[in-house]
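subagent[fold] <- orchestrator: predict structure for attached chain, return tokens only, no commentary.
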Amino acid sequence: QVQLVESGGGLVQPGGSLRLSCSASGRIFSINAMGWYRQAPGEQRELVASITGDHTPKYADSVKGRFTISRNNAVHTVYLQMNSLRPEDTAVYYCNADHLLYYSGDRLESMYDVWGQGTQITVSS
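subagent[fold] -> orchestrator:
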């Protein structure tokens, strides 16, 4: 079974830092772009940062200069280093893979728009 598993959420004071990780489990062959999204209560889910398979990042304006996305293709993991956190960063953060290839038996199968279960980030004093 293929799934994305996030870790690293929690409570942090304003100005603090956290690092999120998201690993793909299963017999993964490759993953195209991966990204982090967030959803605050009463708000729509929004893109925070994304990274292509060749490590080209993209950031929402609200996190530029504070957050850094990276990935390790060898272990099918994407990271989000979050610095200078603000109360408005409080949300559930979700990992996403837009297209991944995995082995099912001897066959190579595709999955599209795969989501993790989400992890809560609360920035509060």
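orchestrator: received. Logging for downstream: The CA atoms of residues 58 and 125 lie 29 Å apart. The mean pLDDT is 97.
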